[in-house]
Amino acid sequence: MTLTVDTRHDITLDAVLRVAWHGEHVVLSDAAVERMVEARQRFMHLLDADPDITIYGVTTGFGQMAKHKLSPEERRAQAARPPIAPAASWGDPVPDRVARTMVLARLANFVEGHAAISPPVAQAVAAMLANDKMPEVPASGQGGAGEILSLSHLFLDVAHQSELGEKDGLSLVNGSPCASALVADVALTTERRLGIAAEILSLSADAFKAPLGHFDEALETQWNNVHDAWALRTIRSLVADEGAGPRRPYQAPVSFRILPRILGQAHRAWTLARDIAAESLAAVTDNPVYLDADEEHPFGQFISTGGYHNAQAVMAMDAVTASLANLCIIVERHSAKLLDGSVSLLPDHLVRSDDQDDLRRGYLGCLAMAATGYEEEARHEARATLLPGSESGGFGQNDVASPIFFAWTKANRAARALDMALASLAPIALRAYRVTDRAPPKTLAHWQAPIDAAFPGLDTSAPLGPRAASLAEHIAVRIFDNASSPVPA
What we know:
By secondary structure, the chain is mainly alpha-helical. The protein has 19 helices and 4 strands.
């Protein structure tokens, strides 16, 4: 299938799923091409009508050379060269789905004429999405004042293969499509990861026999926010099962009682990321940006902007990172409490036995130790992403670097740590059912097969790490392959 982009508002999270995750191609509508043609014509008329006009990067040099006014000959020579900052960063590349999202988001500046880009160049960008593989964009070394380091990796081939006119090269590498793509990726992956975390933590709470009052419907109005209400409803839908038997006679430890609130925090963070991603994908962030003609400006006008810094996306990703780290802490606490019979009230042979062979086969305590390690890794990432404190991003005018890649990298690492921690908790929770001759609720029974596949019969005579890693991989497959599965309603 093919996505037709008519206006920038066609670039949505659903479009990202279709194009970046499912590999659909993109074409620009006839109306979009006509708008770009008209904007380009007005732009060229503007240059001809006012020889003294100052337009950054068009009639001036770039960056610290902005004070240098170009002659018409210099202007055309500058335009014909490939974009500035030619692929100056290196390191581990972002996933291909993220690079595809960057290309898709790049079109938001083009399709309504705000970049005044030559239509064939814009169409060449859209045509990139018919390729099986995007150019590699490093996630490291992205300390530029905007996104020119990453975007030059992405669009250098287009620049070399196109006949560039005034502003075309600048339109390829300016703005903030990387920020839009990165926050969109966090929103989409968090949506799926949150659903899985709710399931495994509910499995743990049910295995612990936590009182259902901790998740009572009445708390939805008492706590007075829709995100905690979502968490309460989700947990109840997962743990409620007729004939489950008596539950714990008194309150569970804090980590079980606050589970709805920590899940609610994560749900709020995901909602923030989703909303900011939706805003950002359809935003015009070019610099300089072309504004359409009006009575005062018959050929339109250009203004310089800071649209290439998306502070909202950084804030949203930091919120997600913090919420994932908190979930890791809850996961580790659940693991430890399930394994402690004096707290869980479960049989001690959940973790130990008088039979030494059984002890060797049955000990799961080291999984809780591993969960502690992943918890600490996530906590390490959960620091505020601020603007760099020194004069960075270059020199001269480029005195502040964009922190967008730093925020995405931290969110990505915290997310992977949560996957690992969940893979440590799940077999402990299933063991708790087995030693009490119970089965998980029907809503969570689908976790038995992947846990047993990783830990056959929960026999732990083999190294635990590779087994837990295979379960973490199952979690990752559910997140990235089952792209249509949303967070539980």
